[in-house]
Amino acid sequence: MGYPFLLKSLQRLILLIGLCQAYTSESNQEKAVRDLLIRLIPDVYSSFEITVDPTIFNDDQISFKILKTSENSTVKITGNSGVAAAWGVHHYLRNFCNCHISWDGDQLKLPEILPNASVELRSADRYRYYQNVCTFGYSSAWWNWSRWEREIDWMALQGINLPLAFIGQEAIFKRVFNNLGLSDAELEEFFVGPAFLPWGRMGNIRGWGGPLSDSWHIRTVKLQHKILNRMRSFGMKPVLPAFAGFVPRNISRFSGSSLFYV
Fold it and tell me: pTM of the entire structure?
């Protein structure tokens, strides 16, 4: 069993892990949406009743129902997932309360008496995909957990259920390359700096703006765990990275007769 086989096995393993979906119970998804409401509208969150029921429309679309009547002060929102229920929350706040939620700021002055509503809505598609690989260099390279928490809340409110989750992959690759025999010094010539990670991951550049410190690897792995746990708590299916086939130049000294373009 040679190193090319190990690299190919790594590629398949990471892809398999990326396809795996951790199941989140309906009660935990309901809690995730209630917690979002506490963060978003702490003074009136208790006026919303959240239910996750995967059977409400018996299909794979992202679906929700909203019901608010004069006889009841509670806004009842039922979604077929946590994401769907959060999307229903945003629909009600935007379309019935004239609220606005964005990346840069919010307008969340709700009326004293919450408006009546009766809405049923289904998405056109089963999945709503979000972000691209370059976003993790252009926008989010330096985000901490509080910024990611707000971003994931925004995703849920927009009905996004298939987001990219690309944080921390260099720590895994470092571990694998070290196990193959490459030194930290050799990897410092390979990994690019945080703002250039998308282009390093696509094989366009190597070493530019680096190296990545051990503290960076530790922090990003911990951050990725939080990100994945929160995404999955809403019922999202995070898209994880696979091995793209780009390796450090010095991998050739372990490859025997295999051919690498470096």
Answer: 0.88
